Amino acid sequence: PGLIKIRLKFLNDTEEVAVARPEDTVGVLKSKYFPGQESQMKLIYRGQLLQDQARTLRSLRITDNCVIHCHRSRGATAATAALPDPGPAGPPAPGLPLGGGTLMVPTVMVVLALGWYFRINYRQLFTAPATVSLIGVTVLVTFLAFGVYGQ
């Protein structure tokens, strides 16, 4: 009486049925079905991460036969506890951080520009299929660049 069934769905498409009361909190649900792993488990309902451990299932409008997606993070707490403290950090650097993804599009554009330079100045080295391929790659990269940066 008063119990609801909740389908816990995992990333590998397996499901487990949890039985809970609407008055139970997210923290109680985690501790009941994931003992010792509460801090590693992320519960997602209707696209929202259930972070507040004190919220009840009723307040989240979780009813009978609802699906909650479960994601187990890989030892995030153990990994951070094992890392040494880096000490006080300096002021954050201004601008964008330079990572591989930040420099990928400009690098590809430079390579394409070099390709077109050689195509124009050394026509005898480029066959018709090579020119068509260069045009195709240029169009593809242009669409990708506008798709990424046009948002």
TrEMBL record:
Coiled-coil residue spans: none
Matching InterPro entries: TMUB1/2, Ubiquitin-like_dom, Ubiquitin-like_domsf
Residue ranges occupied by any Ubiquitin-like domain in the UniProt entry: 4-69
Record's keyword annotation contains Transmembrane: yes
Protein localization: Membrane
Listed Gene3D superfamilies: Phosphatidylinositol 3-kinase Catalytic Subunit, Chain A, domain 1
PROSITE patterns with a match to the protein in the record: UBIQUITIN_2
Ubl conjugation as UniProt keyword: no
GO cellular component term of the entry, any: membrane
Highest taxon, organism lineage: Eukaryota
Keywords noted in UniProt: Membrane, Transmembrane, Transmembrane helix
A GO BP annotation: ERAD pathway
TM ranges: 98-118, 125-149
Main localization, broad class: membrane
Lipid bilayer topology: Multi-pass membrane protein
Protein name from the UniProt record: TMUB2 protein
Gene: Tmub2
